[in-house]
Amino acid sequence: AWVNEKYVTVTKGSTINQGEVYDYIVSEVERLNEMDIDVTHGYDPYRAKWIVAHLENEASFENNEAIPQGFRTMTEPLNLLLTSVKSHNIIHEHNPALNWMASNLAIMFDSYGNMKPDKTERNRKIDGVASLLNTLCVLIPHMQEEVSESTVYYL
After folding, report:
1. Whole-angstrom distance, CA of residue 31 vs CA of residue 154
2. How many Cβ atoms are within 10 Å of 47's Cβ, its own excluded?
3. Which of 61, 132, 133, 134 has its CA 20 to 30 A from that of 125?
4. What is the mean pLDDT of the chain?
5. Distance between CA 101 and CA 104 in Å, rounded?
6. Percent of the chain at pLDDT above 90?
7. Which residues contact 96 (CB under 8 A, 6 or more apart)?
């Protein structure tokens, strides 16, 4: 049902098809650029070398920002996400895949009180939440800028 309703995209093969992911990112960047929307691609650097190299070399898209998934990087966006959810400032159109991933989310703390997302179990997915946190990492430095209207998209 999630595939038919376009909440989840299935790629060819038994593993993630990097080429299809690359094509999707390029098409979304082009679509948003046509609407005069500046795009920064925040990504988890783990296993992203091929896609990022192709984005920079083939698509001439250099606005890529590596977002390490550690405690220091994830604490601020996770705090913002939790605050935004509690105050009902996140609109996600009741996406059932994202709801499921959020239900799989655990929060891990270090000895300094920093936090990062974790899975409740190994085979539970939190990729949609991780993508949202990467988006917030890119957004946070710009939150004090004055803009007439702002919309944040995340893939």
Report:
1. 13
2. 10
3. 61
4. 89
5. 5
6. 64
7. 1, 2, 7
